[in-house]
Write a structure and sequence with these properties.
Length: about 100
């Protein structure tokens, strides 16, 4: 596979991941962190790092808007729920070595 095709496939997979996360707003970031070790904020940071590596001017808020599909504060107000004690305990257990 040539490099251009690989890049296009990776970009399509990323867009599909973002669309899937957009459909699953019920899945909280802490759930993603507990199960997969990353969340929407991690994706935003990786997106920002990629932009920086390519010399593209972008800030963290812009990167988060790309991942969340709206300004982060708006997403947070509409969809983010308070983490339960169980979710917080699981986070501590799964990230004690980070």
């Amino acid at each position: 596979m040539d490099k251009q095709t690989q890049t296009e496939l990776e970009a399509a997979a990323f867009r599909t991941l973002l669309a899937h996360l957009d459909k699953r707003k019920d899945v909280q970031n802490i759930d993603l962190m507990n199960l997969a070790g990353f969340c929407r904020n991690c994706l935003s940071k990786w997106y920002l790092a990629a932009a920086d590596a390519q010399g593209v001017e972008m800030n963290y808020d812009e990167a988060r808007e790309r991942v969340y599909g709206m300004p982060y504060d708006e997403w947070k107000a509409k969809y983010q729920q308070e983490a339960t004690a169980e979710q917080k305990a699981a986070f501590v257990r799964t990230h004690k070595h980070d």
